[in-house]
Sequence to fold (197 residues):
Amino acid sequence: MWEESILIMTKLIAYLTSILVAVVALMAFALSYHALQGVALSNGIPLLLSYVWPLLIDFALVVFSLCVVTAHLHGESTWRQWVLVGLATVLTCTYNYLHAPDNLVAQSVAVVPPVMLFFSFELLAMQLKNSIQRTRKVQDLTQQVTTLKDTIDNPILIRRQQVATLKDSITQADIAKQLGVSISTIRNDLKVLNGHH
Fold:
């Protein structure tokens, strides 16, 4: 019962975190869009294209971040994706910083949205990675318990384990006598143990 409650809470927190990361991504995009568009416009990109240019950087940041999350879900290496996330974050921060008025408060306010987006995705990826590792541990333990239960509940498996232990130290006839079965049963057990059915 307690384990089920923890599982439900973990799933609820994961869903809530995912939703909030999406909200942070939207807010970060909205806050940095104007700055990126202004930088594009003031550096020779035509007016119409200057509205598209911020999408290139911020959407790439979101795509790279989602690739990190996907890689974590599949247990794959994420260092390449993190390099791309880092580069996109540095680009966005740099352009937001350059567009801000020339004072420290305004410049720090300008770089907060992409930095918060970076940390949000990093923590989501870490949460997913830890959740996957916990799930795998539980599955491994469940499999071990099932195997142990099957072994304990199955006298044939117990006998075959005993045959496997004894086969190199005493004769088949002695194994049969010790285990109280016929020699043909021991021979069949040995065939199964050697992969012949």
